[in-house]
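Dear H.,

Thanks for agreeing to be a second pair of eyes. The structure we're designing against is below in token form, covering all 447 positions.
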């Protein structure tokens, strides 16, 4: 079997020798270069399965070599060697298309993991770019662009931040990135940062050692370590407390963790994906999210479109959901009338795909003879945020307070949608103070 070929680019003879020996022991054929010019000559003349380059070279910046490879040899994964603690350079390299980075002094064990992951990517390049995307439904242009973005970012190890409204399918996107990349055989570990109590968060994420605190009767592996060799998905990352943001920043920068009660740091090999329905940049401006962490997790950004932006996908989504519901309730003839389909196509879906699923699940329970009609959907009326109508009457048996709360809730949701969940702008749109809006959101249970 033909050996994989690696190109090592570094102007320090000792480093070149260390890297070459390590790679040769992994059964790779190694070619060394000491300048960008020499490296590009080799890349033009020969195919390589990976390139490992230093950042400081006699005739230029290693970033220029990363850019050259992305333009002329895009199928060649390239990893960069950065100075210890110089994460800004590593982030720039990842943004330019580098597969991963490793810091000096080079840790041989970490280097081996990086090389294995890179070679796995090369071996599976055809299947990586052609994975079936059957779970991501919709033929709209917005969904085609989303699939294309997933395929591109799947090849990298760079942190990806996924943003979009609640219910759009951010976790599904994260799972597809994992399945389309070289870590697909490793675990995919989703963590809802807003669901873990603050006092337990460090132990849950980092693990703990026996006796490190009252109740720690045995060693416990944290969620980050459980994602070793795979992907850690941090959902609702904006809900992380500031003290945990500092610890997560170190995990990304140093690729190490320290369990509670452990005296030393342990190396980890995980790819970090994150998501939130909040505007992270606005959270940074308000001092609720660290700016340095924002730039680390937001190396690559993916936006998941709302259902309102792809209403042409409604019919396909409805067919899929109804077929699944029919199998679950044992009624494979379950169907939706044209009147119900029209009502769904015209609805504004503040809760996106999750709301569509809930609406159809409720309708499947309420409908007669397995036929879902428009009346079974019980869709909420659309209310303009700036023109809140006051009802002339209240339905028999309905309390006035409940009716007004429904109108107020719809108005606030609409305002938040129009301002992309910027509460300051939403409050201005509604003609109230930010504090009043925050109180009403909490009282009405909108979040």
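And this is the sequence the design step returned. I haven't edited it by hand at all.
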């Amino acid at each position: 079997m033909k050996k994989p070929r690696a190109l090592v680019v570094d102007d320090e003879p000792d480093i070149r020798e260390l890297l070459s020996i390590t790679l040769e022991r992994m059964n790779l054929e190694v070619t060394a270069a000491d300048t960008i010019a020499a490296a590009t000559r080799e890349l033009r003349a020969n195919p390589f399965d990976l390139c490992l380059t230093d950042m400081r070279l006699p005739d230029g910046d290693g970033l220029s070599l990363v850019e050259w490879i992305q333009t002329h040899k895009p199928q060649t994964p390239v990893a960069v060697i950065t100075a210890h603690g110089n994460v800004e350079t590593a982030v720039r390299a990842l943004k330019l298309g580098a597969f991963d980075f490793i810091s000096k002094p080079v840790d041989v064990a970490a280097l081996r993991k990086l090389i294995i992951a890179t070679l796995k990517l090369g071996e599976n390049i055809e299947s990586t770019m052609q994975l079936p995307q059957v779970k991501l439904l919709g033929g709209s242009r917005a969904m085609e662009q989303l699939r294309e973005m997933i395929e591109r970012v799947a090849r990298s190890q760079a942190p990806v931040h996924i943003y979009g409204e609640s219910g759009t399918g951010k976790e599904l996107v994260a799972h597809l990135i994992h399945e389309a990349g070289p870590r697909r055989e490793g675990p995919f570990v989703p963590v809802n940062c807003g669901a873990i109590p603050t006092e337990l968060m460090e132990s849950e994420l980092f693990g703990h050692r026996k006796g490190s605190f009252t109740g720690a009767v045995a060693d416990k592996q944290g969620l980050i370590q459980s994602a070793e060799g795979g992907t850690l998905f941090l959902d609702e990352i904006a809900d992380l407390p500031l003290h945990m943001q500092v610890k997560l920043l170190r995990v990304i920068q140093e690729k190490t963790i320290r369990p509670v009660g452990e005296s030393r740091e342990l190396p980890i090999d995980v790819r970090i994906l994150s998501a939130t329905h909040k505007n992270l940049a606005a959270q940074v401006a308000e001092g609720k999210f660290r700016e340095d962490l924002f730039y680390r997790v937001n190396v690559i950004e993916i936006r998941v479109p709302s259902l309102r932006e792809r209403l042409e996908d409604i019919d396909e989504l409805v067919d899929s959901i109804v077929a699944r519901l029919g199998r679950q309730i044992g009624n494979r003839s379950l169907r939706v009338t044209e009147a119900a389909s029209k009502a769904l196509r015209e609805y504004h879906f503040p809760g996106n795909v999750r709301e569509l699923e809930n609406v159809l699940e409720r309708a499947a329970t309420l409908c007669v003879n397995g036929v879902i009609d428009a009346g079974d959907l019980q869709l909420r009326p659309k209310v303009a945020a700036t023109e809140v109508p006051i009802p002339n009457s209240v339905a028999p048996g309905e309390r006035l307070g409940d009716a007004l709360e429904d109108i107020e809730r719809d108005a606030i949701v609409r305002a938040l949608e129009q301002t992309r969940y910027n509460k300051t702008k939403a409050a201005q749109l509604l003609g109230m103070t930010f504090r009043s809006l925050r109180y009403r959101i909490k009282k009405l249970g909108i979040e």
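Two observations from my side: The CA atoms of residues 233 and 349 lie 26 Å apart. The chain has four domains: 5-123, 138-303, 307-377, 383-447.

Warmly,
E.
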